[in-house]
Amino acid sequence: MKHIPLAKPYFTEEEIDEVRDTLQSGWVAQGPRVKKLEDIISQHSDAKYGVAVNSCTSALHLSLLAHGLGHGDKIIVPDFTYMATGNVTLHIGAIPVLVDIDPITLCIDPTKIEEKIDKEVKAIIPVHAFGYPAEIQKINQIAEDHNLIVIEDAALALGSEINNKKIGSFQNTTCFSLQARKLITTGEGGMILSSSEEITEKLRAMRSQGAMSQQSSEHDLPVFQMLGLSYRLSDIQAAIGIVQMKRINDLINKRTHLAQHYNDLFVDSGLNIQIPKISKDIRQNFQTYVVILNQGNRNQIITKLREKQIESTIGTYALSHQPLFKTKEHFPISDYAFKNSLALPMYHELTADDVDYIVNSIKKIITSCV
Fold it and tell me: pLDDT, tens digit, for every residue of 289-326?
């Protein structure tokens, strides 16, 4: 029986050749290939500056620090997101303020943000859930009205667009992931995009122990003017990303085709399942294909699919269900999504026949339990 993984990176001989050339160059730490990858991703996303780091969590952490956020500040985050979004707020001593999500997009609900804003709230971290863009124009307007910083958690949204405008081009600090499961991968890695030269200089310094580009007059050494960390990406990793970015549009087109096939099959199946929204003004990269099960037991379906050699998992977490973020407040849509969301296989080499088998398997599992 064929095994169908949840995700699988797509590599060719070109990535192997680029890594070999990097190793043979003798420059394997952060160097010219990191700079080239920064330029490629920032240009692709219509952003002014790019700063490569070793993960999207590092990207978010540095972005908060670069904007001067810290102890006691309140930061608005969606309840339905991966732990990293909330964790970085705690790492800087800030207070995460949880907000429920939109039931269709699964992104933070802009209509529920303003009721959470008080004088201690300093920033908003919207998450582009599974690659579907959050309503960033509305969020930016709210932020402007209340003098708040917006840092986009675009871990899954490289290449996604709103009205032909790419995520990363909305004048916010934007953080992408390049981790192994992502559309474009360097194995591990992250990228920060910014429109601000000042913020970019801080980010570049802080990823390298606070080393500024200015040189001291005595020994031609870097100057350390701020507290920093070691969050650098290597040229070995960047070499992979440089090649990956050449085919980003092909990767997204293939995933969009597969997502439409999934959607068509689920619509025809007669099952009560909420499928991802596909609309003309949104280009979702379909980093992850997630459905909401309105029938059947999600955890049981994951187990039964595994028996059929199909990998699947939950969509993501509700922060309010975790001990770190436990609160008496209830977020009904996030709660429902946490308990009923199902991420299904999505990767470049997935076939239409594979999708047929996956959907037919889900239908058999659900109907056999009725």
Answer: 999 999 999 999 999 999 999 999 999 999 999 999 98
Domain range 13-245, its CATH number among 3.30.70.2190, 2.40.30.10, 3.40.640.10, 3.90.1150.10: 3.40.640.10
Instruction: Assign 1 a pLDDT band (cuts: 50, 70, 90).
Output: confident
Structure tokens at 126: 């919207």
Q: What angle do CA 241, 199, 58 make, to 5 degrees?
A: 50
User: Taking a C-beta distance cutoff of 8 angstroms, is the pair 158, 176 a contact?
Assistant: yes
User: Rounded to 10 degrees, what is the CA torsion of 34, 38, 41, 46?
Assistant: -170
Query: Which residue has 């700079």 as its token pair?
Result: 35
Of the candidates 5, 101, 84, the one whose C-alpha atom is nearest the C-alpha of residue 305 is 5
Q: Which residues of 141-157 are buried (b: 16+ CB within 10 A; e: fewer)?
A: ebbeeeebbbbbbbbbb
Give the predicted TM-score (pTM) of the model.
0.96
* CA distances for 135 relative to 29, 102, 160, 291, 313, angstroms: 37, 10, 13, 20, 26
How many CA atoms does the CB half-sphere of 55 hold within 13 Å?
Answer: 9
pLDDT category of residue 370 using cuts at 50, 70 and 90: low
Q: What is the pLDDT of residues 30-65, one digit of tens each?
A: 999 999 999 999 999 999 999 999 999 999 999 999
CB 117 within 8 A of CB 68: no
Nearest to 109 by CA among 337, 370, 362, 367: 337
Topology (CATH) of 248-369:
Aspartate Aminotransferase, domain 1 (3.90.1150)
**For the chain, what's the residue count?**
370
Distance between CA 220 and CA 62 in Å, rounded? 26
What distances in angstroms separate CA 110 from CA 72, 100, 137, 193, one per listed residue? 23, 9, 10, 23
Give the SS3 label for residue 148.
Answer: coil
For residue range 205-228, list pLDDT tens digits in order.
999 998 886 555 456 688 888 899
Roughly how many angstroms between the first and final C-alpha of the chain, as a whole number? 26
User: Residue 290: which H helix or E strand, with range?
Assistant: strand 289-293
Q: Please count the other Cβ atoms lying within 10 Å of the Cβ belonging to residue 335.
A: 16
Each domain of the chain, given as residue ranges in start order, spans 13-245, 248-369
